[in-house]
Design a protein that fits this description.
homodimer; about 100 residues; alpha+beta; Translation Initiation Factor IF3; about 30% helix
């Protein structure tokens, strides 16, 4: 099998659910790299998840890339203008 | 004068106050580089600030480095254990 790169979307669940998803992804397949994607308030959660996974669970995990950006979201109900939200992508690799 | 590297701590003020601080720092002195530092929920604000400054105000601004980490905070009143909070450092450079 080729090496896979998985994507985990971080939302508003507790950080530990995403940490568990990372651990599962690394242990079940031959995944070498996982990218966490988040936007808006979940950006903080994504950073928490990366830090918890790295410091407490997977010792040889490294943050290899962090990128920030902006995404356009459709307007809320009753509003006319689309909203801009910040995004983050954190790539984690196992040595 | 030598080139300076400024640090702006991002807290819970509206993002635009920090964007203004960045614009001021770049225009008043010969600052070439500014580092935004934030922790906890302010991480999202720091990303917003970097994105707003870059896309709307300073066209030649580049994100040159993003680092995440963990800091230990003293326990809240009535608690015994110190808390761990995530941190972010975003370095912005003007071409």
């Amino acid at each position: 099998m080729a090496e896979k790169s998985d994507v985990i979307f971080v939302g508003n669940k507790p950080p530990m659910s995403y940490v568990l998803a990372i651990i599962t992804a690394f242990s079940e397949s031959n995944t070498k790299e996982i990218t966490l994607k988040a936007r808006g308030q979940a950006i903080t959660t994504a950073v928490d998840v990366a830090e918890i996974a790295r410091s407490r669970f997977i010792k040889d995990l490294k943050v290899t890339c962090i990128a920030i950006g902006t995404a356009e979201m459709p307007p809320r109900e009753g509003e006319n203008r689309s909203r801009m939200v910040s995004t983050i992508e954190i790539t984690l690799s196992k040595a």
